[in-house]
Hints:
By secondary structure, this protein is mainly α. It contains six helices and no strands. It is globular and about 50 Å long.
Amino acid sequence: MKTKLIFLYGFILAVMIAVNVWASFAGGNVIPAGAVIWNLPWGRATFFDTFFGFLTFWLWTAYQEKNWFRRILWFVLIMGLGNIAIAAYMLIKLYRLKPNSGIRDLLLRQKTL
């Protein structure tokens, strides 16, 4: 399970970075495109869907993180970088798992002794 998830989130991270680099060189500035997309009903729907998805993931992240500085840092990263930050967070969590850990250990907050 851990290896498959590392591959999945590593793939997502690599693709998202590659697409963003490509878009930066090929498409120019994102602001004019954002203005056009915002004027389309499905553009607005996609915007809200995306950021509510980011917020949902961040709520789980805030549950996982024990101090407010890290919670706020991950909020900024997730809202600013989106799936790049989400994939990075999951890779960090997966690398910190012990070899015999299961999905429960990944999803639930670990208690400190």
